[in-house]
Amino acid sequence: MYYITYRCNARCSFCSIWRDPALRQVPDCRYEDVIRNLKALKKTGVKFIDFTGGEPLLHPELPEFLDAAKQLGLYTTVTTNCRKYPDIAGSIRGKVNLLHFSLDSMSVKEHDDLRGGSFHDSVMHSIDIALHLGERPDLLFTVTNENARAIGGLSAFAKEKKLMLIVNPVFGYGGEERIDAETLDYLEKYGRKPYVYMNAALHKLIRNDGNRRTHPRCRAVSSTIVISPDNQVLLPCFHQSNKEIPISSELTDIMKSLAYQSAKEKQGRYPFCEGCTINCYFDPSFLYKADGYLLSSLVSKAKYGFDKYVRR
Question: Cα–Cα distance between 240 and 32 in angstroms, integer?
Answer without folding.
Answer: 27
